């Protein structure tokens, strides 16, 4: 058995993907919170003797990584290969401040899709990135629903309005709906990117994927919308095994 551990240290909720190569094919066995990683590597028989680690980090957590290093794991870091204007052959039209999670997911789409793609990673914060045959073209960062709706707590008459994520996709005529439906303005922003960059496919990932799928269900343009729940881990696996080391 050969293993690979993909680590996503984002802004919140660090987690790990556990891959194993069986009969020449990589399978994602499980995605687990980082603090439970040791439990599952033990269960799966994964160790530094048969598995490598690849790390994407937006927020550094060196103390948490120390036990892996002490166990002898070889840790490959995306940031050590990120040069600023290109990444693994993909042109990058963005400042060096680009988060590694956005970078590696965009690289996956650039290599796999080969058509103008809008990548939406809908988590604590939502990123909308445009990837074309010319590489990573840039994108937006907006608040996720929890962060967005929390701002209404600053309004004396709005802070106690009960909210749900039940979008009706119509002009609101009640305060709770007026607040909820306002979030769909961000979908309008996404649709402007689709038009401007002649997007042919939307790739969705992150905890709010289902919500964002709903924003595009009324589209009749032939646009392909695909959910990819563990995109960050598959992207790290693909980059590691095709660009760094043929595990």
From TrEMBL:
Catalytic activity: (R)-pantothenate + ATP = (R)-4'-phosphopantothenate + ADP + H(+)
InterPro entries with a match to the protein in the record: ATPase_NBD (IPR043129), Type_III_PanK (IPR004619)
Pfam families with a match to the protein in the record: Pan_kinase (PF03309)
Top-level division of the source organism's lineage: Bacteria
Cofactor(s), names only, from the UniProt record: NH4(+); K(+)
Gene3D superfamilies: 3.30.420.40
BP term (GO), one: coenzyme A biosynthetic process
Signal peptide span: none
Gene Ontology molecular function terms on file: ATP binding; pantothenate kinase activity
Keyword line: ATP-binding, Coenzyme A biosynthesis, Cytoplasm, Kinase, Nucleotide-binding, Potassium, Transferase
Membership in a protein family: Belongs to the type III pantothenate kinase family.
Protein name (record): Type III pantothenate kinase
Organism for this UniProt entry: Peredibacter starrii
């Amino acid at each position: 058995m050969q293993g690979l551990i993909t680590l996503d240290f984002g802004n919140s909720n660090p987690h790990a993907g556990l891959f194993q190569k069986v009969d020449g094919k990589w399978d994602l066995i499980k995605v687990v919170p980082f603090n439970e990683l040791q439990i599952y590597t033990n269960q799966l028989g994964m160790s530094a003797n048969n598995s490598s680690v690849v790390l994407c980090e937006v927020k550094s957590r060196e103390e948490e990584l120390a036990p892996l290093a002490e166990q002898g794991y070889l840790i490959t870091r995306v940031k050590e290969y990120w040069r600023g204007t290109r990444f693994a052959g993909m042109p990058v039209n963005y400042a060096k401040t680009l988060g590694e999670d956005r970078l590696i997911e965009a690289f996956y789409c650039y290599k796999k899709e080969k058509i103008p793609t809008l990548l939406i990673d809908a988590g604590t914060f939502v990123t909308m990135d445009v990837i074309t045959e010319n590489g990573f073209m840039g994108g937006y960062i907006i608040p996720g629903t929890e962060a967005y709706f929390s701002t209404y707590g600053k309004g004396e008459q709005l802070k106690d309005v009960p909210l749900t994520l039940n979008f009706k996709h119509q002009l609101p005529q009640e305060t709770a709906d007026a607040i909820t439906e306002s979030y769909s303005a961000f979908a309008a922003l996404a649709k402007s990117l689709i038009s401007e960059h002649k997007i042919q496919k939307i790739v969705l990932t992150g905890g709010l994927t289902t919500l964002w799928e709903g924003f595009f269900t009324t589209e009749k343009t032939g646009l392909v919308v695909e959910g990819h729940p563990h995109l960050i881990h598959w992207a790290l696996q693909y980059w590691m095994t095709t660009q760094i080391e043929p595990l």
